[in-house]
């Protein structure tokens, strides 16, 4: 995770054969609570306003079905290809990977980085059909931060 990103603001870098969207956000909550929010499918259906629905098993090898507000008529079939508790999770889809990385930065503070890279030889042919992710990443990070920090207040 790097400091070249503005905290809580998504950035997209596009090349001829790829596009990567990245957001880094600092959250005033312990790493275990943030991880729990990210990996609990039932809770994500409540706090994650970018979703219509998510179902499946959030574990190594788990399969997820996600309906996003960005593409409401499409069901994204995702496989959890990496699951390192309190540290890293990778969702592998048909067009790319979404990587979640968590790092404890201070007592009760967690840095979360989320990136999604879509790439391939045929990317230039289908890129016009892929919507911009910046607003969705900004909203997701904001929702995660608000939910995690609200839990501290209610504890």
Describe the structure.
With 155 residues, the protein is an alpha+beta fold. Helix content is 26%, strand content 41%. It contains 4 helices and 8 strands. An 8-stranded antiparallel β-sheet has the order 1-2-8-7-6-5-4-3. Helix 1 packs across helix 4 (134-154). The protein is globular and about 45 Å long. The two termini are 29 Å apart. The mean pLDDT is 93.
Total number of beta strands:
8
Q: How are the strands ordered across the major sheet?
A: 1-2-8-7-6-5-4-3
> What's the average pLDDT?
93
Spatial gap, N to C terminus: 29 Å
Helix content: 25-40%
Tell me the radius of gyration: 15 Å
Poorly predicted regions are none
Please, how many helices?
4
Run of helices and strands? EEHHEEEEEEHH
How many strands, which pairing sense, and closed or not: the largest β-sheet? Answer: 8 strands, antiparallel
Q: How would you sum up the global shape? A: globular
Structural class: alpha+beta
Beta-strand share of residues: 35-45%
List the defining traits of the structure above.
alpha+beta; globular; 8-stranded antiparallel beta sheet; 155 residues; 4 helices
Question: What is the topological layout?
Answer:
Blueprint: E1 11-15, E2 18-27, H1 31-39, H2 41-47, E3 51-56, E4 63-68, E5 76-84, E6 88-92, E7 96-106, E8 109-119, H3 123-126, H4 134-154
Antiparallel strand pairs: 1-2, 2-8, 3-4, 4-5, 5-6, 6-7, 7-8
């Amino acid at each position: 995770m790097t400091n070249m990103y503005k905290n809580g603001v998504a950035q997209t870098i596009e090349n001829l054969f790829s596009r990567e969207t990245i957001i880094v956000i600092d959250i005033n909550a312990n790493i275990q609570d943030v991880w729990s929010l990210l990996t609990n499918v039932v809770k994500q259906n409540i706090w994650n306003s970018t979703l219509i629905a998510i179902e499946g098993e959030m574990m190594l090898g788990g399969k997820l079905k996600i309906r996003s507000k960005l593409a409401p008529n499409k069901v994204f079939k995702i496989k959890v290809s990496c699951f390192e508790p309190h540290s890293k999770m990778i969702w592998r889809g048909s067009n790319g990977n979404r990587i979640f990385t968590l790092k404890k930065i201070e007592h009760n503070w967690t840095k979360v980085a989320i990136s999604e890279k879509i790439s391939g030889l045929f990317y230039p042919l289908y890129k016009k059909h892929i919507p911009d992710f910046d607003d969705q990443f900004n909203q997701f990070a904001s929702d995660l931060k608000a939910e995690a920090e609200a839990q501290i207040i209610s504890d």
